[in-house]
Design brief:
- This protein is an alpha/beta fold and about 475 residues long.
- About 25% of the residues lie in helices and about 20% in strands.
- The chain is built from 13 helices and 18 strands.
- Strands 1, 2, 3, 4, 5, 6, 7 and 18 form an eight-stranded mixed beta sheet that branches. A five-stranded parallel beta sheet has the order 9-16-10-11-12, covered by helices on one side. Strands 13-14-15 form a three-stranded antiparallel beta sheet, with no helix packed on it.
- Helix 1 (about 30-35) packs across helix 13 (about 425-435) and helix 7 runs parallel beside helix 11 (about 295-305).
- The longest helix has 13 residues, at about 220-230.
- It is globular.
- Residues about 1-10 have low confidence and may be disordered.
């Protein structure tokens, strides 16, 4: 799509005129959609976000922490490399293109990605911050969705109701921090030093000064928090314990062919599988989306090794294969964790001054937001919303519009649902579906791996010019 096209017309003031597309939430995925929609001829969109401005995991923008995907996984490039909203154009606008060229960085800092997204969000038209979506309903009379939106003041208090109608809606409400059941009572108590890693930077000074700190969780966030605390505490007085439920502090999958599971080809293949097989795959190799970057693991080992140069070992304990069975308050405001080692079958008690839970995120529930669409919504055997190949909720045919979801379809589209590298491809597909055209022609093939046998998404169709025999598919 050419970047020379004129900008989209402004959103009409008449609330009776349905927009083409309304987005709920402005995280990276809906921001990608808004950026690719900008300039599409005749397409009228609006996006709403309850927060006052764009921020991407502000509590985890640890100094030096980098994205686990290349900078090409920006908001637009993998669908429209010529877009003015690309990361490279952001660098050009900030006169930083040559420093970036000399730096030879393929993976950028998290803080830089956040700054880039904020740069886009501050210039794109049609983005409405301090607006909270309350409900989405289908109006047969209008042939459109009605979205109840509440405008908020600087204190987050409701000041006005701004209803909006749209032919289609896209939900990009993101995820929320996950706290394991045994630790929820402590995490909810303001006076207890148990917090999720999402709030790490806000409490960093307090954690650095604490006598003993325990980090729970061995994904990338847990590794970054542990490394930052390790670097901030003096040698011989580290007093850190890092617990992991998995069997090892293992690297994320970074083999070139393994990474092809984060391509459109694999996403289509995964979606076409039977529901039980999809669930089995998602409970399989956790390193695909739950491991640690090689550079981070190396940095942790280097820092620990450096602290042995004068003899002795650092006061840091790293224990995989452990679960937290229960937790409670100990004396003097400390926390007591009751641990179980899964392989040994042994149990132990750990008393610590503070706990950082790097236990990941879960899809934010939309039951209240979509309550009035409940009777129209099709669900799978586990009660989850069914999502078709085009990232649309499967609704009763009487609903003529579509509700698209972003980063809420892991159970139907696989591990790539939350991957930044698929953001532009998914956004482009949503726009193609909304417009009924091909604003952004989809790539025919995106992986060298053929994920299945026989025709079909990700199946055994040979590439053009291939001289081998054709595969014939039969159902067992």
């Amino acid at each position: 799509m050419s970047t020379a096209e004129p900008p989209a017309p402004p959103v009409p003031d008449d609330p009776e005129t349905p927009l083409d597309l309304v987005g709920v939430g402005i995280g990276p995925f809906n921001l990608s959609l808004a950026a690719l929609a900008d300039g599409a001829p005749g397409l009228r969109t609006a996006f709403y976000e309850r927060e006052p401005a764009f921020h991407w995991h502000p509590g985890l923008l640890v100094d030096g922490a980098a994205l686990q995907v290349p900078f090409l996984a920006d908001l637009v490039t993998l669908a429209d490399p010529a877009s003015r909203w690309s990361f490279l154009n952001y660098l050009k606008a900030r006169e930083r293109l040559y420093p970036f060229y000399v730096a030879e960085r393929f993976r950028i800092h998290r803080a830089e990605y956040d700054a880039y997204c904020r740069w886009v969000s501050e210039q794109l038209p049609g983005l409405h911050f301090r607006h909270r979506a309350e409900a989405v309903r289908w109006s047969p009379d209008r042939g459109a969705f009605e979205v109840e939106v509440t405008r908020l003041d600087e204190d987050g208090e409701a000041v006005a109701l701004d209803p909006v109608a749209a032919r289609h809606v896209v939900l990009g409400v993101g995820t929320e921090p996950y706290v394991p059941e045994p630790l929820r009572p402590l995490a909810d108590a303001a006076a207890v030093p148990v917090l999720h890693a999402a709030d790490y930077l806000e409490h960093r000074e307090r954690l650095v000064a604490a006598g003993h700190v325990t980090v729970v969780g061995a994904g990338q966030s847990g590794a970054e928090v542990f490394l930052d605390l390790l670097r901030a505490r003096p040698a011989g007085a580290e007093d850190l314990h890092w617990l992991a439920r998995g069997p090892a502090f293992a690297p994320a999958e970074c083999g070139k062919l393994g990474l092809e599971r984060f391509t459109p080809d694999y996403t289509r293949y995964f979606h076409a599988l039977p529901e039980p097989e999809r669930d089995r795959l998602l409970s399989g190799p956790w390193q695909l989306d739950g491991g640690i970057g090689h550079d981070t693991l190396a940095a942790i080992h280097d820092e620990l090794y450096r602290r042995t140069l004068d003899g002795g070992w650092p006061r840091a304990v790293l224990t995989p294969g452990v679960t937290v069975r229960t937790a409670g308050r100990a004396s003097a405001g400390r926390v007591e964790l009751h641990l179980e080692h899964l392989q040994q079958g042994t149990r132990a008690r750990l008393v610590t001054d503070a706990v950082v839970l790097a236990t990941g995120y879960r899809e934010r529930r939309t039951d209240t937001l979509l309550a009035e669409l409940g009777p129209y919504l099709r669900r799978d055997a586990a009660g989850r919303p069914c999502v078709d190949e085009r990232h649309r909720l499967e609704l009763d045919p009487v609903v003529k519009g579509s509700v698209y979801v972003q980063n809420a379809e892991r159970h139907t589209h696989g591990v790539g649902a939350s991957d930044l590298g698929l953001a532009a491809w998914r956004s482009a597909g949503i726009l193609n579906s909304v417009t009924g055209g091909a604003l952004y022609p989809a790539p025919v093939r995106t992986a060298f791996t053929t994920f299945g046998l026989g025709p079909g998404p990700g199946g055994g169709e040979p590439p053009p010019g291939w001289g081998g025999e054709r595969l014939v598919s039969t159902r067992a």
